[in-house]
Amino acid sequence: MNGKRDVMVCVTGQRTCERLIREGAQIAGIKGVGVHVVHVAHEGERFMSSAENEAEALEYLLRRSNDVGADMTVLHARDPKAALCDYAVRNGIGCVVLGVAPGPDALAFARALEAKLPGVEICPVMA
């Protein structure tokens, strides 16, 4: 093994996540590693939600993932944070790119991932 660890991009069903995919692909290109795009759907719920436009957005993000040579994975889980951490460990992830919305708790999810994934670089991208 060459010691290089891939980049994971966390996306939602929003088309605006295309920016995260591009950012993750750029980081992966600089590091010379692969990129994984991951969406977590809540267990027991529909694939996305009942909104048809979200399914279209996910298809759009799949195409954008393919454009940059990334695999896209959809996970079903009760605890998205745990699912993402498990995926990161199983797939040799060294950097996680995720979007954060403005607000007082903007970085809470990123910090929680950082605490559960020691040694993994967390790269929050402000919306």
Describe the structure.
With 127 residues, the chain is an alpha/beta fold. It is built from four helices and five strands; from the N terminus they run βαβαβαβαβ. A five-stranded parallel sheet has the order 3-2-1-4-5, with helices on both faces. Strand 4 (93-100), helix 4 and strand 5 (121-126) form a beta-alpha-beta unit. The chain is globular, with a radius of gyration of 14 Å. The termini are far apart. The mean pLDDT is 89.
- What's the main sheet like? 5 strands, parallel
Strand order of the largest sheet: 3-2-1-4-5
Tertiary shape: globular
In the predicted model, the low-confidence regions spanning at least 5 consecutive residues are: none
Helix fraction, binned, reads 25-40%
Helices and strands, in order, run as: EHEHEHEHE
Structural class: alpha/beta
Q: Please tell me the overall pLDDT.
A: 89
